[in-house]
Amino acid sequence: MAKKRWIVMSQNAAEHPVFYHCISRVVDRKLVFGPDEKEKFRTFMRMQENFTGCRVVAYCLMCNHIHLLVEVPPLPEGGFTDAGLLERLGAIYNEAEVADVAGELAEARKSGAAKRVLEIHARYTYRMHDLSEFMKTLMQRFTKWFNRTHARTGNLWEDAFKSVIVEDGVAAKTIAAYIDLNPVRAGMVKDPAEYRWSSYGEAIGGGARGYGKKARAGLVRALRAHTGSGADASLWAHDVAREYRLLLLAGAAEKLEARVGRDGRTETRCKRKGMSDAEVGNEEAKAGVIPLGKMLRCRVRYFTDGAVIGSRGFVNEAFAAARERFGSKRKDGARKLRGNGAAAAGMLWSVRDLHQGIS
C-alpha cells in the first residue's frame, strides 16, 4: 500500500515556514508544453494560489515537466469571514456562482442557521491550505484544458507528483535557485532572466498578465522567510534581487553591478569580463551568497528525491516525527549529501541516502 504523502505539521508556521519542492512530468516525457501551454498553466497556477492560499515562491515550467516550490501557510485563526470566503471563490468561480454562494450565506445568516453557514464554508475550505488539494486541482484543471485543446483523452501526467520537504533559509533559497536554473541546465538559455516561464524570468520581465510583482514577492519569501519577512515585493529592491542574481550566476565568469532602474528597483547588469574563481567567490561573499557554484548548474537528485532537505537538526526532527516510515535499525534521519550535491555537504542534509546513481 502506498504511503500517505509526507507533510510536516509546523506548530509555528508563521515563524518557521516549511516549503515543498513539487515535481511532475508529462506521461512518456513528451515535449508537449509550448508557449501557449506554459502560459495557460501559469494562469491556472496563479488562480489556484489565490483560491487555496498556498503560495508558489519559485517555479519553472519546462517542455515536459514542472517544478514548483510551494509554501502552505496555516488556515486563518478562527476561519474565514463570509467576505473572505467569497473573495477566495472569485479566484476560480464566475460571478454568478459566487453570487449564488453569497445568497446562500445571507439566507443562512438571516435565519440564524449557524450550522448551515459552517456547512457552506466547509464545502470549499477543505480544498484550501492543503498541498495535495492544490496540486491535484491544478494538474486536473490543466489536463482538462489541454485535452480539450489538443483533442486527446487520458491522463497527461506520468504519475502523482513528487514532493520534497524543504526547510526555510539556506535550503529554500538553494532549491529556488535550482528551480530557476532548469532552463540553463537544459541549454535553452544562458541567463535565467531570459526564460519567461520561471519565477526569476517573471520577476524580471513582469509576465504577460503582469504577475511580476507576485513573482518578486514569492522570491523574497523564499530568500527571507527565515528572517521573518513576508511575501513583500517591495523588499526585492533591498539587496534581495542582487543576492539572488549572484546566487543564480555563482561560478559564472561574470561580474555583476547593482544599479537603480527608472522605477526605483535595484537591478543588475552583467559585465562579460573574465574573473578568477577567487574573484567570483569574493563577489558572492560580499552579497552573502552561498558559495555553491557549479553545483547549481548540475542535476542534484537529492533536490528531487531526497524527501526532506534542510539543516541537520531540521531533517532529524522530520525523521523523528515520521519514525514509522523507516526501519527499526535506522537511528537518525540526516544523511550527508554526496555526488553532485557534495558542495552543500555539511550545510544541507537529506533524509534519504542516495547511494546508487547519485547525480
List keywords for this structure.
13 helices, single chain, 359 residues, Alpha-Beta Plaits, alpha+beta, two-stranded antiparallel ribbon, 40% helix
The mean pLDDT is 84
CATH class of the largest domain: Alpha Beta
Distance between the termini: 29 Å
Low-confidence segments, given as residue ranges, are 251-275
Short description:
Helices cover about 40% and strands about 15% of the residues.
SSE blueprint:
Elements lengths: L17 E8 L9 H18 L2 E7 L3 E7 L10 H8 L5 H17 L2 H12 L5 H20 L11 E6 L2 H11 L1 H4 L13 H7 L6 H13 L15 H9 L6 E6 L5 E6 L5 H11 L14 H4 L2 E3 L1 H10 L13 E2 L12 E2 L9
Parallel strand pairs: 4-7
Antiparallel strand pairs: 1-3, 1-4, 2-3, 5-6, 7-9, 8-9
